[in-house]
Design a protein that fits this description.
mainly alpha; rod-shaped; three-stranded antiparallel sheet
């Protein structure tokens, strides 16, 4: 047996280098896809929160307006069809405005979604573990027109019901 025979040495080096190179490329590809998916989910969450912030149907009940705003926000989130990236629309939730909220609670009004992403394509490096991602957009909620009218009526007449008065209420800033 001759130990100085180097036949096949370049083949072994090529296989090891090729396996390392392909693994590196797959890690970079998966990481870039995770970043792109994360940015898209963040944008969808932000846009849905914007819809929630501004939605108003001029109903007499401010709480009915809030309910409809939440439905419109969920519809807006669904428009982005994130199921292509395995991000379920059902995970999107609205942290709603509720009666008697404190100012610190009001800071968390808006949209929130959570989803999972794979760490590596083959499942050999990190196993079956997944990244747990959260996207939040807390923009708050503008008062509805009905709420503005009620506040303005109270400021003018010290009464929350101005339906008996012959006046038109308009406030551009509420």
């Amino acid at each position: 047996m001759n130990l100085k025979n180097e036949k096949g040495q370049s083949t072994v080096e090529f296989i090891l280098t090729f396996a390392f190179g392909v693994s590196l490329i797959l890690v970079i590809f998966t990481t870039s896809m995770n970043y792109a998916t994360g940015y898209l989910v963040q944008y969808a969450t932000f846009m849905a929160s914007r819809v929630y912030l501004t939605a108003d149907n001029s109903l007499a009940s401010p709480m009915a307006t809030i309910s409809q705003a939440g439905q419109k926000a969920e519809e807006t989130f669904a428009i982005y069809n994130l199921s292509i990236f395995d991000v379920p629309n059902s995970n999107f939730k609205i942290n709603p405005v509720e009666e008697g909220m404190t100012p610190s609670q009001y800071l968390t009004v808006g949209g929130r979604t959570s989803f999972e992403l794979t760490i590596d394509v083959m499942g050999k490096i990190a196993g079956e573990k997944k990244l747990e991602m959260v996207s939040e957009s807390f923009l708050g909620k503008e008062p509805s027109r009905a709420e503005c009218a009620r506040r303005l009526c109270f400021a003018i007449s010290n009464n929350e019901n101005c339906s008996t008065f012959d006046i038109t209420l308009f406030d551009n800033g509420c």
